[in-house]
């Protein structure tokens, strides 16, 4: 679409013969996870689709991650997020919370920080997610450092690809330095925050960008906050 990064649906299921590439222990964990996910999202989709989403999540993370531990757990978390987004996009799952999606290039710094700041300041009364156009293998260490300084840990965060279902489920989409590459879907509120990439920048600059992100997320929160959040303020 006019040179933009068009989001593709979840790919077709892999050839079963390629499952030998997944270690036996991880295959066992993935099978149990798939059963739990299908039980939770039976109204949303069927078991083969759950298996496909989970397997593709595992393979994508295994391909990108620089640290290979806990891949099956991370794939389960990502698949859970995907299935919930699918249910929201289809109207099967209802949520009273405003839904915000932050997108940047690598989902390794800016977008993760913005989502964490919004979740923290809204006390969970706004659903915030993040995704990357070309996810990195791990979070930027400096991003983890500057967020820890304000007591918002990113230790368990990980880069995630932008999927069609997650994109469709969002009500508000914030592009961080990549607006020209993000497809605009009907009925969504789009914003462009000009926050530059962290790579190669000194820590003091990243702290300043963190503070800028905090100001912007607070302003966004005040604009879209649900009535319950206003009453508790």
Please give a structural write-up.
Helix content is 47%, strand content 9%. It is built from eight helices and four strands, in the order αααβαβααββαα. The chain has helices at 24-40, 47-64, 71-90, 110-121, 141-148, 164-169, 203-224, 227-232, and strands spanning 99-104, 127-132, 172-176, 189-193. A four-stranded parallel β-sheet has the order 2-1-3-4. α1 packs across α2 and α2 packs across α3 (71-90). The longest helix has 22 residues, at 203-224. The protein starts with 23 loop residues before the first helix and ends with a helix. Residues 5-20 have low confidence and may be disordered.
Explain briefly what this protein structure is.
By secondary structure, the protein is an alpha/beta fold.
Question: Could you give the topology of this structure?
Answer:
Layout: H1 24-40, H2 47-64, H3 71-90, E1 99-104, H4 110-121, E2 127-132, H5 141-148, H6 164-169, E3 172-176, E4 189-193, H7 203-224, H8 227-232
Parallel strand pairs: 1-2, 1-3, 3-4
Helix pairs in contact: 1-2, 1-3, 2-3, 4-7, 5-7
